[in-house]
Write a structure and sequence with these properties.
Blueprint (H helix, E strand, L loop, with lengths): L15 H12 L4 H13 L1 H15 L6 H14 L5 H10 L4 H15 L1 H17 L4
Helix pairs in contact: 2-3, 4-5, 4-6, 5-7, 6-7
Length: 136
């Protein structure tokens, strides 16, 4: 069995802090699962980590739409899968200027294809996000 050649030295890639920065900029923090994925990728295969993060950055910021719109779409997609990560994209949408009404409307769209569980999760997350929002 052939073994694959080792890629470039691990220190040739970004630091964990450099990988974490786009998450902090977008959401305000790095979600726990992301922290684990970044750490493991850096330890085991920084080349794959670098490729994954490059693709993620390209897809997360499509040229045809603003960040708020992309994050609202991701919030709705993830709500329709009842995915916990929908919270992070809801938070990112708010940081990008989305309103409570916009998030509610997106939760209503998720309801059309996933039903009351998606709408309930959306309501829980939207309330959580806005209940924690700093006073203006």
């Amino acid at each position: 069995m052939k073994t694959k050649p080792k890629s470039t030295a691990k220190d040739a890639y970004k630091t964990i802090a450099e990988y974490e920065k786009p998450y902090v900029d977008l959401i305000g923090f790095v979600p726990p699962r992301i922290k684990h994925r970044l750490r493991l990728g850096k330890d085991c295969d920084p080349e794959v980590l670098d490729m994954v993060e490059a693709i993620r950055m390209k897809a997360m910021y499509p040229a045809s739409m603003d960040t708020k719109t992309a994050q609202l779409i991701l919030f709705g997609l993830l709500l329709s899968h009842l995915a916990p990560a929908s919270e992070y994209h809801g938070r990112a949408a708010v940081r990008a200027g989305a309103t409570k009404d916009e998030l509610h409307d997106v939760a209503g769209l998720a309801f059309l294809f996933r039903g009351l569980p998606a709408f309930n999760l959306g309501a829980e997350l939207i309330n959580k996000i806005f209940d924690e929002a700093p006073a203006k």
